[in-house]
Amino acid sequence: MMMTRIHTLMLCLLTALTAGAQESKYLKTFEFDERIHDFGTIEEKNGKVSHTFTFTNRGKETVTIKEVNAMCGCTSAEFSKGPVKPGQKAKVTLTYNPSHRPGHFSKEAVVLLNDGDYYTRIWIKGDVNEMVHPVTEDHPYAYGEGLYMSHAVIPFSVIQPGQQDSIRVLVANDSKQEMTLTFSREPNNRVLQLPEKLTLKAGERTLFYARYKAVKRYPYKRYITLQPYVNGKAVKTLRVTWLGNGN
Fold first, then answer.
1. Where are the chain's structural domains?
2. Which end of the chain is more exposed for a tag (fewer CB within 10 A), N or C?
3. How far apart are CA 154 and CA 166, in angstroms?
4. Residue 115 to residues 9, 21, 182, 220: CA-CA distances in angstroms?
């Protein structure tokens, strides 16, 4: 009986979605001057880029742009308000934010017309050249000797015996010389797994994974103090915490 109800609900939902899709029709007579705009290669450091598409109403009925759905938080849209009579033009401007989005992008925008009964589609695309962000943007904790990391505390949550959790730690060498990074730990708990050694070139940024495997049950919070060494010199410490796993 339960499975029958679930199947019925799924069928109703699918029917509703299909009906909604069938109600909205592609409007060929709302013509765009170009369907796809290629920005080419843009520089992340230069910020947002915009392009304006022009539409002409080639039909016999007045058209109004109700909404432009850009499908992504990185893309925003502005558009002409008010009715577009036959023969008149309207504009849609798409703006793309390349911040922290290196590489190729291709973004679709759906232009909903009238009360959503009709639609048309446009695209923007391009390639983003990545900029070098300030080291403190992703590595806010300074440890000394040019070492920066993303964590002051590496916090593991509840892990049941036999289970393992991992946390990504970003590391940066903000000095002008090669850096060798090692760690000691107190207590010397080997269920915490770290790289034995990391070597970073001048200005290099990398990451490692800290992994903790619970081997037995602990009802209380545990701590491990990590002592980083940069080229053999001790710098500021950081802490690893684990919430335990109950009684």
1. 25-129, 135-242
2. N
3. 10
4. 28, 14, 63, 59
Percent with pLDDT over 70 in the chain? 88
In CATH, what is the architecture of 25-129? Answer: Sandwich (2.60)
Strand partners, 68: 111
Contact 73, 44 (CB under 8 A): no
pLDDT value at position 221? Answer: 78
Comparison of pLDDT for 189 and 147, the residue scoring more: 147
| Residues comprising the chain, all counted | 247
Q: What is the pLDDT of residue 101?
A: 95
Give CA–CA dist 101/74, Å, rounded.
Answer: 9
The residue type of 209 is: Y
pLDDT of 38 above 70: yes
The region that residue 3 occupies, defined by phi over 0 for left and psi between -120 and 50 for alpha, beta otherwise, is alpha
**Mean pLDDT over the full length of the chain:** 89
Structure tokens at 24: 């909205």
More confident residue, 52 or 18: 52
Question: Distances from the Cα of 221 to the Cαs of 93, 155, 194, 218, 247, in angstroms?
Answer: 54, 11, 20, 8, 12
* CA–CA gap between residue 215 and residue 208 (Å, rounded): 22
Q: What is the CA radius of gyration of the chain?
A: 28
DSSP state of 174: -
More confident residue, 212 or 55: 55
Are the folds of 25-129 and 135-242 the same? yes
Is 230:180 a contact under the CB 8 Å cutoff?
yes
Highest CATH level, class, for 135-242: mainly beta
